[in-house]
Amino acid sequence: MNPLLDFSGLPRFEAFKPEYVTPAVDELLAANRALIEQLAADGAPTWENFVAPLEDANEKLHRAWGQVGHLNAVMNSPELREAYNANLPKVTQYYTELGQHQGLFEKFKQLKTAPGFARLNRAQRAIIEHELRDFRLGGAELPADKKARFLAIREKLSALSSRFSDNLLDATNAFAHCVENETGLAGIPADVVQTAREAAQQDGKPGWKFTLHAPSYVPVMQYAGDRALRELMYRAYSTRAAEFDHPEWDNTQLITEIVALRRELAQLLGFANFAEYSLEPKMAKSPQQVLQFLNELAAKAKPCAERDLAELKAFAREQLKLADLEAWDIAYASEKLRIARYAFSEQEVKQYFPETSVLPGMFRLIETLYGLTIQPDNAPKWHPDVRFFSIFDPGNKIVGQFYLDPYARPSKRGGAWMDDAISRRRIANGIQTPVAYLNCNFAAPAGQVDGEKRPALFTHDEVITLFHEFGHGLHHLLTRIDELGVSGINGVEWDAVELPSQFMENFCWEWEVLEPMSLHAESGNRLPKALFDKMLAAKNFQSGMQTVRQLEFALFDMHLHYDFDVRSERSVLELLDDVRRQVAVIFPPAFSRFTHSFSHVFAGGYAAGYYSYKWAEVLSADVYSMFEERGVLDSANGGRFRDEILAVGGSRPALESFVAFRGREPKIDALLRHSGMSP
Predict the structure, then answer these.
(1) Which residues contact 598 (CB under 8 A, 6 or more apart)?
(2) In 171-180, which positions are buried (b, 16+ CB within 10 angstroms) versus exposed (e)?
(3) What residue ranges define each of the domains in the chain, with the CATH number in brackets?
(4) Is the model's pLDDT at 450 over the cut of 70?
(5) Selected catalytic residue, list 346, 469, 493, 552
(6) Model confidence at 448, in pLDDT bands (50, 70, 90)?
(7) Above 90 in pLDDT, residue 678?
(8) Which of 195, 202, 266, 623 has its CA 20 to 30 A from that of 400?
(9) Is 469 a catalytic residue?
């Protein structure tokens, strides 16, 4: 059997081959289209005779294509990329056809108006409401000629986004710089140097190989004393997929096409711009409301950011003899200032967080809050570094399972993310166990101690990233909703989906959580309280600069899709410059092409939605303040959080879930306090 067509259990990664993709996709699409025509022709629809079989068919396609998309992101190869891109238009066309199918639309409208609608459970009613909304957003009410154009735009956008992502990965992988003289390594942490040495040896070259992947690039920018090396790396990183080299990877024209097509798609449906279309299923009601939120936060953050930068410039000038602070000096000077002010470095802290201690510590937190148990388990994997775990409830009944793929490699796209492999739902023989993919890009273990490979060491920021992605995973895995369309993260408003992930980040600043999960890589000692206190004192170090940076991204994204016309004489880069003049305090060199690697917006799901990070941060900080009031490890509060936020999925509006937990609507006060920006 084609492993992509086996839905009896976990994905069969050990049997996967790129040549299986096309036959599987073609078979599933043919079967689904035949079923759809049958369902549209049948009599009066009910949940059992209409929604359930449609869900079954679409879940099979989602699971099969989800495996292909996942592998394309984590084990990219020329053969798989070719198979993925060959089938992507077919899958996109199917989903667009599905969203425009007049017969299905009529059936869902009949369900909504039928007497039996009131007897459905809340999750089922929510799914029908969501389907009707999505049919309208999918072009179901358009005349035939506009439907055809809508379909063509969706297919083109899908192809352009995939190309954007491929270009960025290729441009990232293409660059490598070998340092041949050991003096050029001054300041770079020993474990990073060791990894660079091993990378050069694998290529059969002398010296130390550095790349643009985060585990290599970030430490160089933060610690390398060689300013010329930092500049070289910065220039390469900030011009990836741009017009300077390798025209075949240039994302310039793709960006223009993507933005123009999104606007046209939205206008076909009667929206003035893509931002209005994007916000239709979100918590935020209008682009104006989002811009007001971002601008109000910017007004509070920018004075803090200006103070941060002034302090950094003064320190760099007086202590580092850097009269002009360039973009490639920012991370380096900031780390030096952190050490001078708080008497510790991130590298010092990193020694206390080996992966072998951090993972069990994070699991203990979840077990304490929710009364669960997390245990290693076995499953077919796509790479030897991948691990698999199962989560059990107090009665030893399985709740969910997840894969963890922690390390960076050339075949894997950058960043960190969670994806659903299988969603919880009720099936004929019980409840289907949800399964998640958790993906990060940490440095793999390097070097040996006493003949054994050292465990990977995580910076505190990487610990926060791990907790963040695990928060997404818990949102997917700890649902109690049995209807697929609103189970886990399904059906949750996009600007609320970051609430559980950002909520988890807060625990990384709690002594009673952090201390037990720490274990020095060499001495075996726990994190000293004195060092933790320094970390806490430094928690909001440059928080103003960090906040305006995120606001810069969010405002650029919203204006790009709201009131910017790519047909005008102004370029996308000029729009970004306008936004920077409004909120930024750091202005990169003219050659910088941040836009060309902004995957969240041009190759992900965050178009006119990047504001969601700050929007959800307000929610998460406010929710966490209740744990601060009652005890951060309070299991009763943890149980309520699971019941009212994690368990309900998209079965009710996110604001309703928030109020059910917090007892009131959200306030920004906790976020400002957590960020050190309270009046």
Answers:
(1) 553
(2) bbeebbbebe
(3) 3-141 (1.20.1050.40), 175-240 (no CATH), 249-344+542-610 (1.10.1370.10), 355-528 (1.10.1370.40)
(4) no
(5) 469
(6) low
(7) no
(8) 623
(9) yes
